[in-house]
Amino acid sequence: MPVALPLHDEAARRLREEIFAGQLVPGSFLDEAVLCERLAISRTPLREALKVLVAEGLLRHEPRRGCFVAQVTERDLDEIFPVIALLEGRAAFEATRNAGAADVAALQALHDRLQEHAAASRIPEYYEANHSIHEAFITLADNRWLAQVIGDLRKILRLARLQQLHAPGRLQQSLAEHLAVFAALRAGDSLAAEQAMRTHLLHQREALRDIARHHQSRLSP
Predict the structure, then answer these.
(1) Can you give the residue ranges of the HTH gntR-type domain (predicted)?
(2) Alpha helices in 62-189 (DSSP H)
(3) What's the pTM value of the predicted model, to 2 decimals?
(4) Is the dihedral of CA 78, 196, 57, 37 positive or negative?
(5) Which residue pairs, CB below 8 angstroms and at least 24 apart, start in 22-29?
(6) How much is the average pLDDT of 160-165?
(7) Exposure winner among 32, 36, 162, 177, fewest CB in 10 A?
């Protein structure tokens, strides 16, 4: 039987899901009275939940005004991607050192699925397989501090609701990058796996920048 979460943890979980789903949009104000009624909790656990989400970077608190859903700027993305590239590169390095035959076989199955979705241009399914592969590398790295920091940064990136695979040619480029990381792991080359993963993350940022430029050019008269 699952153990019930404390009230503030359950409230934080529900609000987090609503933020990621876009039901609470970036920049929106969180009315405590409304939330208390909707979540059926008192102010104390709600405020504890809000503190958790502020600490995660999903909300921002303004003195005498309250909490707002955080907004991720282009500058934020420019600052986050080089950091997460370093961290996930390190995860790939450690995963390669730790990988056994069973791990390689499991990763092969994930990459086969990734290739199938890419061939069929199934972007939502590709995103899911892509996420599973990144999680597999982090798990295989077996470094809880690395996993914690990457997880925190990925929450911020989810808040931005990024769609870098919609950039022209990005789907096939992403697939090639993943296969390069996996080839290095399979060869037992930790340094090559680290560099390939860093390149993969930095190319994601470039794709997002291209999409932003294209969108801006369409809006310009």
Answers:
(1) 5-72
(2) 74-98, 101-119, 123-141, 144-159, 170-186
(3) 0.81
(4) positive
(5) 22/161, 24/69, 25/69, 26/69, 26/70, 26/71, 26/72, 26/159, 27/68, 27/69, 27/71, 28/68, 28/69, 29/65, 29/66, 29/67, 29/68
(6) 72
(7) 32
The parent domain of residue 62 ranges over 7-69
- In tens, the pLDDT along 179-215 reads 999 999 999 999 999 999 999 999 999 988 888 776 5
126 and 60 in a common domain: no
CA 55 – CA 111 distance, rounded (Å): 35
From 47-56, 59-68, 104-113, 155-164, the region with the lowest mean pLDDT: 155-164
Collapsing DSSP to helix, strand or coil, 92 comes out as: helix
Summarised one tens digit per residue, pLDDT across range 36-78 is 999 999 999 999 999 999 998 899 999 989 999 998 888 999 9
- Coil/strand/helix, residue 67: strand
Q: Do 65 and 85 share a domain, yes or no?
A: no
